[in-house]
Amino acid sequence: MNSEPTSLLQGTLDLLILKSLIAGEMHGLGVSRRIQQITGGTFVVKPGSLFPALHRMEEEGWISSFWGESENNRRAKYYRLTKAGRKQLEVETKRWGRISWAIAQALEVS
Amino acid sequence: MPLLVKVRSFLRNLFSFRRVEGDLDQEVHSHLEMLTEENIRSGMQPKDARRAARIELGGIEQVKEQVREERLGNWLPSVISDCRYGVRQLRKNPSFTAVAVLTLALGIGATTSIFSVVYGVLLRPLPYPDPNRIMAVFEVTSKGRPSRVADPNFDDFRDQSRSFQAIAKYNDNVASVSGASQPTRTTVAGVSPDFLKVFGIQPILGRDFDASDAKKGAGPTVLVSYGYWKQQLGSPRDLSQSHLKIDSAVFSVIGVLPAGFRFPADVDLWLPADLDGENPSRTSHNYNAAGRLRDGVTVEQANQDISVIARRIHDTSSEQGDYLLKDGIVLPLQDSITGKARTALLVLLGAVGFLLLVACANVANLLLAQASVRERELAIRSALGAARGRLIRQFLTEAFLLSLGGGGLGVLGALWGVAGLVALAPANLPRLESVSISIPVLVFAFLLSTAIAAGLGAFTAARATSGDLREGLVEGARGQAGSQGSQRVGRVIVVAQIAITLVLVVGAGLFGRSLMKVLEVNPGFRVDKIVTMGVSLPWVDDPKAKAGQGIFFSNLIERLKQIPGVRKVGATSGLPMNQDGGLPDGMFLLMAENEIPKTMDGFGALLQQKERIGIADFCVATDGYFQVLGIPLIRGRIFDERDGANSPHVAVISEALARDRWPNQDPLGHTIEFGNMDGDLRLLTIVGIVGDIHEYGLDTPPRPTVYVNLFQRPRAATTLTMLGDADTRLVASAARGILQDLNPEIPARFRTFSQVYSASLGSRRFNVILIGFFGITALLLATTGVFGVMAYSVSRRTREIGVRVALGAATGDVLKMILGQGLRTVFIGVAIGITGSLVLTRTVESMLFGVTATDPLTFGGVTLLVVGAALMACYIPARRATKVDPMVALRYE
Hints:
The complex is a heterodimer. Chain A has a single domain, classed as Arc Repressor Mutant, subunit A, CATH 1.10.10. Chain A is built from four helices and three strands; from the N terminus they run H-E-H-H-E-E-H. Chain A has helices spanning about 5-20, 30-40, 45-60, 85-110; strands spanning about 25, 65-70, 75-80. In chain A, helix 1 (about 5-20) packs across helix 2 and helix 1 packs across helix 4 (about 85-110). The longest helix of chain A has 26 residues, at about 85-110. Chain A is globular and about 55 Å long. Chain B is of the alpha+beta class. Chain B has five domains: about 1-75, no CATH class; about 75-130 and about 340-475, no CATH class; about 140-325, no CATH class; about 495-520 and about 760-893, no CATH class; about 540-745, no CATH class. Chain B has a six-stranded mixed barrel. Chain B has a six-stranded mixed beta barrel with strand order 15-16-21-18-20-19. The interface of A and B includes residues 47 and 58 of A.
């Protein structure tokens, strides 16, 4: 994924992070790999985009963080969804639905 | 809830900065480790795995910086760190910082000082409720100028207009007041009953005037200022025992006005106008008028209203002639008070603005040179993850530090500057008491500093961060291309500086030449060694009492002549150059010898015969007055012993009047009637012609004047003039003693005539001193600007010059090359400056005297001066360039 921050992509990144965290708590690299996996490799989120987004979303209160152990016994910062985050995921999902529907409509017009 | 989370994050970012940073550092590092492990698991060599992980991460510091940028309230710590870094930068270059801050302080300080005068005089609202509803009402003369109002005209304005909730007339004069403590000369206003209602104020003690106070023959009443009540009356709560003897009548004090109310300026006592009845003439303009607009009425509507009434008076009055009003006009009171000072103050503000621009240009050039030295630093910071925006912010921060430092120092300097300006300001500048460093002035200074900071910061940031910063990292690179560009910008700045400076110095030159031309004018009288003494006796109407005053002055003059060292003594009703108002002027009539109008009405009827009319100023004087001031007798004689109170009355006229009224004729022996000036209808026989004098200032042409003899036409308010070699203080105290001896109730005011004369040049001197100071300062700044740019350019070109010398360039060639480059810049600046001056000096044309706005001498001289100064500033670096040793220069790289 390009790190160029247009508002559409910005919203998309938030949505993808929220969506991947619904599967449970994970660290930054985990989120990144999860996104890669659920989008079938279409989006590769670079740390330069990922970390600012995670920190921003934490400040928004959508996700919370704690220090935990990674699968290789390494100290890593884990993120999990908060209640506000679940609500935000719903909002973002609806919004995205509207946008994609609208874009699809637009493209169908000959 | 989310708000709470945000606040918590904000506070954590702010106060647990270290922990937040530590967490971030660990997080990014553990991310890197995990990436590496992932790569190793997928079969890479550990070294390759680490490298691939780093590439994917894209730089630890960059990532961290990107996270920081996203942080809530991230601006605060980064602003603080920018400031800290900025202060460190500035301290590393103390001489650069000092020069930049002081230059800005000079510019901002000077601008703030002038602005505080402009604000105090022109902008600060008058200190009354709804000041913008208070209007001045004027008649418009047949020449189209606004003038004071005559009593019956004012009455018509008051009774027929519908635009004002209150309208009042007022005038002021100096009276001797006793009964409080010492007899003093106090400024007293005569006002109509609604005066305080116009200003929307009420007495803090006692009562306002009502209609009964203004009736003819009413018991005299007076309102006093707060200061007068405290200092002269001893602040009694009960006013019933307070009485003041003003001139010859005793007045009961009925009210005290609020502190700070003094309108007209310097007035301490307000009396009802016309206690002796109104003057029925529609052409005796004795009062100012002011009104408060009714709610919803615009200035324009009020203007229409008054204009209609005025034109009706013009059409129907029996007193047709040049002195009858033609129209009426309504102006906001504040504008009418400050109108004359406006142009001069705005010119000063413009001039100081130019100085500020020149100062800012110097600082911009300094910053530019500074920025090119810092190319390497910028490259490193950008490689370490600083975004371009962050670098721009750094420049802005530094510019803010410089400007606010300069602004702070400038305001401190302005405290001193304003005190100096107030001391230097001409006495006729209105509202000087409201000039101070007030809150709006401070806000102005702050906004000005901020604007300068934004300008300078944006400018340097744009220059410094253009192009690829990373080039600065290349070993040995001198950023030649970039610095070529910045040198070009530097030269453009210098061109602007020279152009602006030239305009300023041309302005200063024109004002200076005007002052010189004014001083060359022969005033028509002597100035030195004259002590003046203002005396006002009580105003009287009765002919017998008047005659008594004539005798009083005659005795006084005889006694004053006895003072040791005093050679001659005279008296006059109007001291030349005195800015207190000047002589009354009016129409007189040519009469046959035995023809005497019996009444003022008869006089009015004769005024219809145009061929009899003459116009002149009316001055009451003694023979000694002409001798003391050295006003030459042209023909005939001046007053002497023959002209007693009961002998035929005589007049002496000025050359200008002789020329105007009796061209190709001998005025001597003609008789005139000028009784409309003092109520005495006896004819005056012209016995002499004296030289013209510039009564109203050297820059105003002499006016036709009729002089009458004080001993025949006594007058209450008179200025005595004493010529002598004795010490002026001794003369003054001796004269005071004599006056005390003759009448202890009469106060006097002493000044030397040279003080009066010098004060009349005050406005011009003020302008010349200030604009001259701004011009010289700008010239110095511009010269250092030229020097700086040239010196910098030479140091940049050391190697090139070395190569040229090594290839055989002679000293002269190098000198010519560098000077040529400098002079091109200077000449472009001068050309623009001259063009600009030609346009701009037109705006000050009305303030010049004896020179045109395009005076070639001034333009030529100033151009030479500016080119000379700039040439010197170019020559020193050019000299240095010729000293370049090619071997050293080439090895240097």
